[in-house]
Structures are given as structure tokens and as C-alpha cells.
């Protein structure tokens, strides 16, 4: 079959001019009704395009065949959408219908990549035009694969941008009191509070992978944080689960007498596994150090299923547009912890505010949120999420 097509291609190039060749192919494509007919034209055009390349025909002529092959791909995508509609695109909610379509496609010998490429070229005519112009301008020869891949990249980027914008809009909505955030060092920030000021200190400080000496770093800020938290309040501090990091926290927490060290809370997730270690198991959880005193109010345990020490929920996912930082915590987790350990009107302090997850959650629950970060890029995200940057410090006005 390939030899016959090649022979026809050689004959066509030898006996017909370019206009005649395209006229014949245009007509065949216009009247083609079955997938087999479209695929046949695609095969012939691909051979002619390859022949033009091997015989070193001009750039314009090679691109004429490339553009025509893209037209074929678009018609193939149109046919697929009509005969095997994509569930989401056509409004199907029945997963079985979508799965059935996939099975039928495989039965017909149509691969997932082939279907995806043809559909995206057909469904994005404006992007197709822009991508083709960019490819030609760059001096490359147009092919359906290159065009499809470039369109997918753009669509994926646009979709992610839209998802991020939607997440930011949702995050900044329903904020009762905008949290105050400051660009400053955590220790300097904490010292602006009177002792026994914070009703809840909730934070996610840098891990041992982020600082050169985790023991020294923890000793530099944690005793100050303990001092600034009310004895009637609580502290919730995230940390990694590495022994050295645990030791750093225990060396401080075991020497203080203000609070009772509760059993560790554990946040576990299964959607950000990273590289599989060679010598130990995959670490898919983090600790939350919980401190309280006999004077602290009881936890809000109104939702029984939220009271387990192990809290299982996925981490924010970059593919969903809700992840702006490597160590960002889930909104659901922040809301749960704040609801359980504080009440409306309480002061929630976060000396490592990062993207503002905890303070935004506190505000939505009617708490007063204040925090700092020494990284301007992090604070810029927190401000987009709904925090307000302050330069004048008066952290005792609400105590």
C-alpha cells in the first residue's frame, strides 16, 4: 500500500503542477464522509509532504502541504466530535457513555493522541491561525502534530490562568475583616504584641529543607511566640516529620511550662508524592504541634468527623489552579483548625503568613487575622487573596 501511495506521489509530482494537485485533494477532502476516506487523504498528503521535504522543495511549497494536512486534521476532528462526542463538550454527565466512546475509538483503531490532536485543531480555529502564523514566522514547516501541540499548550495555559483567577476571586470573597499583613521578620513582628495577646497562633514556618539550622531557627522564634499567646488560647504549628525537625521543636516545647503539649495532629495527602525515595518510604504527611492549657476553652467538636487526629485531604494542586506556593495548605484544613480552636472576634496570629491561607480562613470565620512574612513575593499573593499590606504597626489595638 505504501509503495502504491509513493508511486502515486511520484507520478503526481512528475506530471501535475501544484494547483492541479491541490485541486484534486481539496475535492476529495470536501466530499469525504467516512473516517476511512479522510484517513486515506491524510496518508497521501503525508507522503507528498515527505517527498517535498526529501526533494528539498521550497519552504513555501512544503508549508502548503503542511497547511493542507492541518485542514485534513481539522476535518478529522469534526468527524470525531460528531460521531464520538466528548462527554464534557457535549454535556454528557454519564461516565459510562464517555467510557463507551473511548472503547469504540480503540476498536476503530483511533488512538487517544490522534483523537485529541484532531479535536483541538478543529475546535480552536482562531488559535490554529495564530499558531500557524507563529510557526511559519519562526522558519519551521507546519505539521498537524506541531500545530496541535502548540494549541494544547496555549489552551492549558489559558485554562490554568482562568482557574487561578477564579480561585483568587473565591478566596477574596466573603472576607469579613481584611487581615493585616506586614513585610518584616517574624521575631520583630511577634515582639510588637504584648505578652498573652494572641487567642490562636497558627502558622506554617519554614522546614529544615528551607533553613540551614532548624534547631537554631526554631529556638529563635518559638519561645517568643509562646510568650505572645494567651494562656487561655492555643497554638497550632506545622512541621515536617523528619526526626531532626521533631527534635528541634521538642527541645523548645519540652522546656516550657505555659502550655500542655497535646498529641500530634497529622495532615496526610496522596496527591503530591514527588520522587520516590530509595532508602525509606514516601513521606506523605506533616505534623501539627498542638498546644493548649487547662484554661483554654474546649474545642468546637460540633462536626464529629472532623475531630480525628489524622486529617486526610489533598494538598493544593497546581493543575487545579489553587496552588501558589510549594508548602501551601488546603483551605479546608485551615477552616477546620480555626473553627475548632477559636471563636468569632478572636485574634489569630501567623508569623509566617506566606500566601495568606490561614489568615484568609480566619477572616471568613469572623476572626481578626494578623501576620507577617519576610518574602515580598509571598505577601503579594496574600494581598491578591484578600489580605491588606500595612506599614504602621499597632498590633495591640484589638487586644
Structural notes for this entry:
The protein is α/β, with parallel strands linked by helices and 399 residues long. The protein folds into 2 domains: 2-164, no CATH class; 175-389, 3-Layer(aba) Sandwich (Rossmann fold), CATH 3.40.50.150. Helix content is 51%, strand content 13%. Strands 1, 2, 3, 4, 5, 6, 7, 8, 9 and 10 form a 10-stranded mixed β-sheet that branches. The protein is elongated, with a radius of gyration of 30 Å. 31% of the residues are buried. The model is unreliable at 1-7, 9-16 and 87-98 (pLDDT under 50).
What is the tally of beta strands?
A: 10
What is the correct CATH architecture of the largest domain? 3-Layer(aba) Sandwich
CATH topology of the largest domain: Rossmann fold
Principal-axes geometry comes out as elongated
Round the Cα radius of gyration to an integer and report it: 30 Å
**Helix-strand sequence:** HHHHHHHHHEHEHEHEEEEHEHEHE
CATH class placement of the largest domain: Alpha Beta
Total helical segments? 15
Q: Report the helical percentage.
A: 40-55%
CATH superfamily (homologous) name of the largest domain: Vaccinia Virus protein VP39
Main sheet overview? 10 strands, mixed
Mean pLDDT: 86
Low-confidence stretches: 1-7, 9-16, 87-98
Distance between the termini: 84 Å
In terms of structural class, how would the helical and strand content be classed? Answer: alpha/beta
Strand content: 5-15%
Count of structural domains:
2
